[in-house]
Amino acid sequence: MSIFSPSKKTGALLLADGTIFPGEVFGAETSKLNDGVLGEVVFNTSMSGYQEILTDPSYLGQIVVMTYPHIGNYGINSGDSESRSAFVSGFIAHEFCDQPSNWRSEMSLGEYFRAKQIPALTGVDTRALTRHLRDKGAMNALIVAPLPESKAEIDKILQRLRSLPPFGDRDLVAEVSCREAYDWTAPADERHQAWNVPTVKAKDNPLVVVLDLGVKQNMLRSLVSRGCKVRVVPVTTSAADILKQKPKGVLLTNGPGDPALVKHAPDTVKELLGKVPVYGICMGHQILAHAIGAKTFKMKFGHHGANQPVLDIKSGRVMISSQNHGYSIDPATLPAFAKVAQINLNDQSVESIELPEHKAFSV
At what angle do helices 265-272 and 283-291 cross, to 10 degrees? Predict the structure, then answer.
């Protein structure tokens, strides 16, 4: 197994606050980084799952920093992608492995970066970078290569960076949602099934309509594995068109960006409530809140990782969950008929709401 350890700094991450973190380019061609690659830089605390992170549509427009220092040792395979492509703006780790050792590996992480034209940096002090983001919050950044030698040139790049619009100032969901409806029939295989959780299967093959806000395919596989018929529809689909299909339930998926800027979906969900059971995940959770008149706010650095502790208020049970979101529901704005069901134990943010009268809930 070969570890890619840089001997020289050929690029850098420039943060909007003027902080610079040097590293070596690993991934896309250096020439493509001359003008810089823009993204909101966030950190993810997962030890593995980098392929799922790279292919999660919720990361559209973001540069992901992995806090675990060694990334890439099990390579890339065709079975673990969560969507049709990679969506991150950039990827950063302290140390990349470019000769993986795993029987499922089909290519190295470096090969994948080059094939998907994903800019990446290695040799970065990710511990210092993560601490900086915890203190200052997520912010816009540029991956550049090479890093200019003169302060004047660096100042010019920073000036351009600060003039760019903030992350999430547009409807990112509209960019990742499918353009046409389609049926999903593939179940989860052994690699994607929870080994210690019994799978309860529906007997009547109920139809679940999935409103695509940036869906991850494991949600679709999980529904099929539980005996559901799955129909995925674009975010622009009207409530009338959804109800016309006579679904037994509607799933609101994950997705990127600011939920307050998502068009169509809140109005659609508002019309669905009380007529069909609704379940929201991640962005879908926040869209459900907007549909009932609540508000969301941008978190300082969000929840990105596979180790977020969640308390179920009713049972007292604590669960360790995988999350990726930078916005949260303001509990003070929830109407009386909405109930907070779960909270995050790190910061007390709302993790789940229930609308018993409407047969709707979200996480």
Answer: 70
